[in-house]
Amino acid sequence: MTATPDTPAVRMTDLRLDRGGRTILHDVSLDVPRGSVTAVLGPSGSGKSTLLAALTGELEPAAGRVEVFGEGVPRAQKALLSMRKRIGVMLQGNGLLTDLTVAENVALPIRTHTNLPDPVVRRLVEMKLHAVGLRAAADLFPRELSGGMARRVALARALALDPPLMVYDEPLTGLDPIASGVVMSLVRRLNDTLGLTSIVVTHHVHETMPVADHAIVIANGHIVFSGTPAALAESQDPLVRQFLDGRPDGPIAFDTTARAPEAA
Amino acid sequence: MPFVAATRALGAAGLFAVSVLRASKPTRDFFAELTREIYKIGARSLPIVAAGGAFVGLSVTLLGYRALETYGATGQVSVLLGLGLYRELGPVLTALLFIGRAGSSIAAELGLMRATDQITALGLMGIDPVAKTVAPRFWAAVLCVPMLTAFFVSLAITAGYFEAVQVIGIDGGTFWQSMKDSVDFHDDFLVAFIKAAIFGAISALVAAYVGYHAEPTIEGTSVATTRAVVNASLLVLMFNFVLSALLFRS
Fold first, then answer.
1. Nearest CA to CA, how far is B216 from chain A (Å)?
2. What is each CA distance from B106 to A93, B103, B219, B221, in whole angstroms?
3. The whole model's pTM is what?
4. Quick one: which of A43, A108, A131, A210 is 20 to 30 A from A26 by CA?
5. How large is the C-alpha radius of gyration of chain B?
6. Any chain A CB within 8 A of the CB of B217?
7. What residues in A contact B128, CB-CB < 8 Å?
8. Which residues pair with B208 in a beta bridge?
9. What radius of gyration, in Å, describes the C-alpha atoms of chain A?
10. Among B192, B179, B145, B193, which Cα is nearest to B49's?
11. B70 three-state secondary structure
12. Residue A261 has pLDDT above 70, yes or no
């Protein structure tokens, strides 16, 4: 399929995702428009990260198709690694290499995928760290950073190759309200200034909605809502209302013992 | 079925070994990582290898002296020391010390990298995690274990010389001449290095395999570390017998 400017950044069609012999998500179809910030919401264990794994090619769909910029996610290792250069992923656990400094972490994808001379790499790293407000932390090691700082370093590293698509996996977990606000405003600002498409996978509804253009809610193994944040706030769907209002009783089962642990 | 599971695990380990070799490309980043790993797992193992070598040299000399004294052949103690060290004890004991010191750290590091999403993050950045994390450690072990073996044997022979000549009173000239006459450069010295390189490869592959595939938890890392030491040690002992049978025919 040839990508046109109207082709969605991400398209999932009739997707079914299994893990450990269990179906985690089924009948998932969604489009993520280019240039948008899309929030994928849902309670813990609903399969948000599983959806992310399918998008990045870590998990092969049991059925259906995932396309990134009009091209199917490849299965061959070499093609997959090549495709991932176009997707910046900020992981929930940051994934910063602990034996490298902040600057070395951000430089890692640049050094690996380009032949740029060292002075240019250093300049690029400075720019990326400046974009997340951490230029002064270049020589620190990850163990010397606060949770919010580490999250922003991971963001700078995910942006290192100027990917057109950014994916944030639970970017606010463990952050205080101020750090959460900083990270979410960065997501929006970087999306707009760099012309990116962003997908934010989270269960932090109230912090995410102000910066999102589009919201998708996953519960009970499928998509239960897809629309604007305003429409989400007005939704009367019992599943959506229970999630948004944080009610313990309702159609979404709180007891997750029967769920596969990797569905988180 | 245990047989099927064991066969599957063996196949997976074999494929992992192939992936390590395929991921070993001589890039600038690879050599930078290799240098760092040689320092971490090679240079930092020197003290333990030196101490181990010295004590083994002292023990073998004492044992040989007591056994040969019965036959009035104490002058041949250096033959026992030299052949024993080059053919068996040097490569094997160095590899076992290396597994305890560096193999466990390789498994623990990779296990923790798995548990803290570092390996996942590398893959998501389009960087082959095996090329970045395993290949440099593997080649560092292949290069370091022979050098550490040389160091181990040198310390063992030096300690044995001082005990035999300075303490027991064996003639120094006889000590060196007997060793020179019996230890062959090609058949003993070089073969010891080949064995050591193979043991280094086995140690690193086993440690990296169990660490890389560890459950992403603290307990998983702990289990991987134990498995690395136990499995690598047993494999080294097993391969030592096979290699000795194949390489030392005379």
1. 11
2. 22, 5, 16, 11
3. 0.83
4. A210
5. 20
6. no
7. 77, 81
8. none
9. 18
10. B145
11. coil
12. no
